[in-house]
Design goal:
By secondary structure, the chain is an alpha/beta fold. Helices cover 43% and strands 12% of the residues.
């Protein structure tokens, strides 16, 4: 590890992940006084601002490989977090930084929801954007939760002084007929139209296990998971479950989802996928191979797995 990489990792673990100096010292194999000295040097040299203004060579190398392998417009790879529970927070913050770099007036943004995207809002710089809007790409919950589509879209719109458009429907209806009634409403057709005409979209994916957000929120049951696995699903994008090639599988749950179709994303100039973790590697790969997203924000460990796949 180069000296520069060492400095950036120390700063990352301390300022972004919130580790103590003792924890950082153990993580990078340095003494606490040396960690303190490195942090002081970073502050003095202006490396530490609202975000870290530098790159880590291995992350940069992996980003280049991902761009080449999947034909991406861009890729951002963050250091692997010291604690696995910080993964969504780490990737989300970096996705927020990335989105901030793309912001301008007259911008139409489409956004999904989930834990990673909720954390991304903490990395978005507050701005007053003229003639701009936020459109939610899928339905939401019937009860309050910070990571819901409504809360995510509302908060982003507030941060950017933008108009906000919601899919005022549950993410999954009771049956396909009810779903069709919802999506054919003019008010939702307007939101679907705004999603398709967006300049940039921010989304994430869900894995195929009990830790998936849709399962933890009791939107997807164990029976649903069993049915999805029988149809060879590897995870979901915008509530649509896909197979390893990125095809939307023909199953009951997909017939009941109120959300933009993954294929709609191909018409958006820049689609940012912010996700990571070993359990999501297969679905991330499926989304990229199907060209539903052309920018990836992920962590080192996941990037390594994707490059090796």
């Amino acid at each position: 590890m180069s000296r520069e990489d060492q400095r950036i990792r120390v700063a990352w673990f301390y300022y972004i992940e919130g580790l103590t100096q003792n924890e950082v010292a153990k993580r990078v194999g340095l003494s606490r006084p040396l960690v303190n000295q490195i942090l002081a040097t970073c502050r003095a040299e202006g490396l530490i601002q609202i975000r870290l203004d530098s790159d880590i060579s291995n992350c940069t190398r992996l980003a280049g490989q991902l761009i080449s392998k999947f034909g991406l417009l861009d890729a951002v790879v963050t250091p692997a977090p010291a604690h696995p529970e910080n993964l969504a927070r780490t990737i989300g913050l970096q996705a927020g930084f990335y989105l901030s770099d793309q912001l301008n007036h007259d911008l139409q943004i489409a956004i999904g929801w989930g834990e990673t995207l909720w954390h991304s809002l903490k990395g978005v710089e507050r701005q007053n954007l003229r003639n701009s809007s936020i459109a939610s790409m899928l339905g939401g919950l019937t009860r309050y939760a910070e990571i819901s589509a409504y809360e995510t879209a509302t908060r982003l719109a507030d941060m950017l002084s933008a108009h906000c458009y919601y899919m005022a429907a549950p993410v999954y209806t009771d049956d396909a007929k009810t779903r069709d009634l919802f999506v054919n409403q003019l008010v939702l057709q307007e939101v679907f139209s705004r999603v398709r005409s967006a300049d940039i979209a921010l989304c994430s994916v869900g894995q195929m296990d009990m830790q998936a957000t849709l399962h933890r929120l009791e939107l997807v049951s164990e029976d649903d998971l069993a049915d999805l696995k029988a149809h060879r699903a590897v995870g979901d994008l915008l509530g649509h479950y896909l197979d390893a090639d990125g095809n939307v599988v023909d199953c009951d749950l997909n017939s009941r989802v109120v959300a933009a179709h993954p294929a709609d994303l191909r018409d958006i100039e820049r689609v940012v996928l912010a996700s990571g973790g070993k359990a999501k590697t297969e679905i991330i790969s499926a989304v990229l191979r199907a060209q539903y997203a052309n920018v990836l924000v992920t962590d080192e460990a996941t990037a390594e797995l994707l490059c090796q796949a």
